[in-house]
Amino acid sequence: MSSTRGSVLVEGALLLVLASFVIILQIELCRRVWVGIVVQVSAFESVRASVLGFSETKTELNIASLVRSTLPFISETGINGLSRKEIKISQIQSKAVIRRHVRYSALVPIESPSIRKRNFEVTQACSFPFSH
Amino acid sequence: MFISFLALAMLPLMIAPIMTHELFGQVYDFEKTIIGMDNGAIILGRADRKTFNFLEKTNLLLSSLEKFHHPIHAVVVGGLASPSTVAQDKAIELMIERVVTGSLAMAQTMWKKSEFEFFSEVRRHTSLVELSQRSPTLPVKKKRCVLCSQISSFEIRRGDSQTVINSKGIPNIKPMIIDLFQKKSEGSKKWEYQFLQVF
């Protein structure tokens, strides 16, 4: 009787550890997808604005407000980092490419002698064709 | 028993692709609508520019006809004209009238055709884009000559020449304005278009 109870307790504890691990992994995965989508949309918006000649300042403000409202866990430094974009205009392929990059802190920082992971980084590029 | 616990715990990970699929779907619709809107706007802007430049060319033709017409008309009005001069005056006036009527009809057709081309381009991508503000008729005013009271030129009403494109049902997409403006360079006046965004 006591050995059965002990076994159930061990399995329960293991399940608890596993379940919390899975939940953290799940949340981290969703956050990664979420950040990826928002960064991609912001790259798309800014490359479109630069090709169609919209106001760059207003677009940047618009993107910053989008990021603030959709990704509340990204710090102000991260949002400022996001507005630093890299634009590359390829004359041969007739397209403009904007690359955006964001860094956000991990839900649970991993600290071990071999691995040290506190932040995750997402880079998304979006190209926009244009004709002369 | 442990395997079943493991499978149960891993279940959310298996659901993740279904959850993210919904997000990706929304972004796909958002970007597809914007691309449809942009392509349509480019086609509409180019077509309107063509229509307005056509009217500018008509204005040049009318002003050159007026240069021939005015001296003859002055003689006719003065009462010293021979019957052949009166006939010439009438012939030029008729020609001016036909140029005005024909050009206006042509420009009106071009204005409507550009709308049709816009919608056919937009429908290739999405059905969620509409023209929320556009003059139903060509935004043109006829100007009469002070000397002979014939229609001497077309004046484009710039305020009415703006077209606003909006998306239906997607609130995050900002409306877009196609603004046509006159560019003067080396004595010639040509129409150009630019896009403005409503923030």
Portion of residues in beta strands of chain A equals 25-35%
The multimeric state of the shown protein is heterodimer
Shape of chain A: elongated
Question: Helix/strand/pairing class of chain B, anyone?
Answer: alpha+beta
What value does the Rg of chain A take, in angstroms? 21 Å
Q: SSE order of chain B, as H and E?
A: HHEEEEEE
Number of helices of chain B: 2
Structural class of chain A: alpha+beta
How many distinct helices of chain A?
3
In round numbers, the mean pLDDT of chain A is 80
Helix content of chain B: 55-70%
Quick summary:
Chain A is α+β, with helices and mostly antiparallel strands. Helix content of chain A is 55%, strand content 27%. Chain A is elongated, with a radius of gyration of 21 Å.
Question: Which keywords apply here?
Answer:
heterodimer, A: 132 residues, alpha+beta, 3-stranded antiparallel sheet, 3 helices, 3 strands, B: 199 residues, 4-stranded antiparallel sheet, two-stranded antiparallel ribbon, 2 helices, 6 strands, 21% strand, rod-shaped
